[in-house]
Design goal:
mainly alpha, 3 domains, about 75% helix, Growth Hormone, Chain: A, about 575 residues
């Protein structure tokens, strides 16, 4: 009897999560994800980082370099064109082999080749003779890159078949993206000391073309659940409302988006034509909140208002009628349906989720804007109110920062990504989310210590014996910086992977493009809004107090992450109303 029962028990025993993860890791989509993440990171580093070094070497003035500030808008406002890629489609352009690739891979390959070609054109430019040509190409690169990001995120979410797939692909994505930064950062800067910058950019263009092989390795996701006969069959709420309601709500959203796009276009034109260009700090402090409100908050509020009428989602069918009716239905389906789906699944918890999304990477995004001034700034510069007290800048050389940040720091970020990838399999997504927020906040205490002399770091180096091990790199000050950046980057890599895994879990694969772009836009925008005010805070109170403030801000993210963990744990328990709502995209 015992013998007969044993096989049944063994058969019922679930496969361990770590074993499922190992099997998933061997799939070719993981290799594709690594190459595609390189293709995503190369253009970002090429036009938003390394390009400034080339312009500086060519004698281009800071005010002219400032013209390129608006390039980041292409990444910050991806939500504007994300609805156009919600459906998996690709135009018929007469290239037979692209039809065999499928729509997602076709967009990826075309964008990759466009970016590679434009980077090659950058290599042929002459920055010293004028920056407008270079700025124009860089803007097109950024737009093509942001489209690539939208499609890649949709592909990553749609191709994943399990939680293990989603978590591992989040980790692989972060690893590849960081290696792309190493390629366009340390590698490019090192080569620039040996060969002309134009040749360096040709090499970057070749690297982009090589990364495009990831599209050849990748598989096209199965779109049968969202399309039939070329028609979008994703669920829609539109049929639950009178045509006038659909048209009115879409008109309000469209008007808000038109104003937001107008603000961006005016800033774009002024940046290219005015000398000096408009202040990016004023733009992010004054105009960016208006843009966020019009692009995200307004449609979100309308989605919530519509849901109060208790609509029922049904398979989308294009309505009969005039072109205006069909256009309104299309816009409703591509913009409002994804937002209504998100709000309906989360209900009031959407406030908690959006708060967590806004705050989770806030500290890192703000601190990143002051990293170089802190590392390289003059230690003798004092506070505005009391010049005899140093602001706390470290006064390192460019070489010191290249060693600590652009070399060791990148590898430590990759290490943090790997550690989180393992932790996601071992302990789960939400514990990693809370732990990542905690260590990302606490590591700022290390920089606070450095800002007032580094006594705590010196004691740590002496106690652990790490100081003598790092003596070959330089003096004690450099050893402090290396260890501080290494620890901070491990924490940042861990937190980044945990956060991407969480965002991926929040997204409905049927609306991946718009929902992920919505959450991603919030992350990038909120991090830039507080920089101007905190810059004044540093000049008034010093870097030490600045880092202490960032720790407390980071604790808000820790509390929100813990609350989200508790919410999802509670929602899994049996409750009185067992027949409620759609499943949560929980752990």
């Amino acid at each position: 009897m015992t013998d007969a029962a044993t096989p049944a028990n063994d058969k019922a025993k679930p496969v361990p999560r770590w074993l499922r993860a190992l099997k998933a890791l061997r799939h070719r989509k993981m290799l594709a994800m690594l190459l595609l993440s390189l293709a995503a990171g190369i253009p970002y580093g090429a036009v938003l980082g390394t390009l400034n070094a080339w312009l500086t070497a060519e004698g281009v003035t800071p005010s002219q370099i400032g013209i390129l500030n608006f390039i980041i808008l292409a990444y910050s406002f991806k939500l504007i064109w994300a609805p156009g890629f919600q459906k998996a489609w690709f135009p018929r352009i007469g290239i037979p082999f692209l039809q065999k690739f499928g729509p997602r891979r076709s967009w990826l390959l075309v964008m990759q080749l466009i970016i590679a070609g434009l980077l090659a054109l950058l290599a042929l430019s002459r920055p010293s003779e004028g920056v407008l040509y270079l700025a124009g190409i860089s803007v097109i690169v950024a737009i093509a890159s942001s489209v690539h990001d939208i499609v890649l995120e949709a592909w990553r979410i749609e191709i994943a078949e399990s939680d293990e797939d989603r978590d591992l692909m989040s980790a692989v994505y972060q690893m590849g993206y960081r290696f792309a930064g190493l390629f366009t950062g340390l590698f490019a800067l090192t080569l620039a000391d040996i060969i002309p910058w134009s040749t360096v950019y040709l090499i970057i263009a070749v690297g982009m073309a090589i990364a495009a092989t990831g599209t050849l390795v990748a598989q096209e996701p199965d779109h049968s659940s969202t399309e039939k006969g070329g028609h979008d069959t994703r669920p829609s709420f539109a049929a639950s409302f009178p045509p006038r309601t659909v048209q009115t709500t879409v008109a309000v959203v469209a008007a808000g988006w038109a104003v937001a796009i107008g603000i961006i276009v005016v800033f774009f034109i002024d940046s290219l034509t005015q000398t000096p260009p408009p202040s990016a700090a004023i733009f992010t402090r004054v105009q960016a909140p208006i843009i966020v409100g019009l692009l995200i908050l307004l449609p979100g509020l309308i989605a919530a208002w519509l849901l109060r009428r208790q609509p029922v989602a049904a398979t989308h069918v294009t309505p009969a009628g005039s072109w205006a009716t069909k256009a309104a239905d299309t816009l409703f389906h591509t913009i409002l349906d994804p937002l209504m789906d998100l709000v309906q699944r989360l209900r009031w918890a959407v406030i908690l989720v959006l708060g967590l999304v806004l705050m989770y990477r806030f500290v890192d995004l703000i601190w990143g804007g002051f990293a170089y001034p802190f590392y390289l700034g003059d230690p003798t510069v004092g506070l505005i109110g009391n010049p005899s007290i140093s602001q706390g800048a470290l006064g390192h050389s460019n070489t010191d920062v290249a060693i600590a940040s652009k070399t060791i720091g990148v590898f430590m970020t990759v290490a943090g990504s790997v550690i989180c990838g393992v932790a996601l399999i071992a302990i789960g997504r939400l514990p990693c989310l809370v732990f990542g927020a905690l260590i990302a906040a606490l590591t700022n205490l290390i920089f606070a210590d450095l800002a007032v002399g580094g006594a705590g770091m010196d004691a740590f180096l002496a106690m652990t014996g790490i100081g003598p091990m790092l003596s070959g790199f330089g003096d004690q000050a450099l050893s402090r910086l290396i260890v501080a950046i290494a620890v901070e980057n491990v924490a940042g890599g861990f937190a980044s992977v945990a956060f991407v895994a969480y965002l991926t879990a929040m997204v409905n694969p049927k609306f991946a493009a718009v929902q992920y772009a919505l959450l991603g836009s919030l992350v990038m925008l909120i991090g830039s809004l507080g920089r101007a005010e905190l810059g004044v805070f540093i000049e008034t109170n010093g870097y030490h107090d600045f880092f202490i403030v960032t720790v407390w801000i980071g604790m808000i993210a820790v509390a929100l992450a813990a609350a989200e963990w508790a919410r999802q744990a509670f929602m899994k328990k049996p409750v009185a109303d067992a027949g409620t709502t759609s499943p949560l995209p929980a752990e």
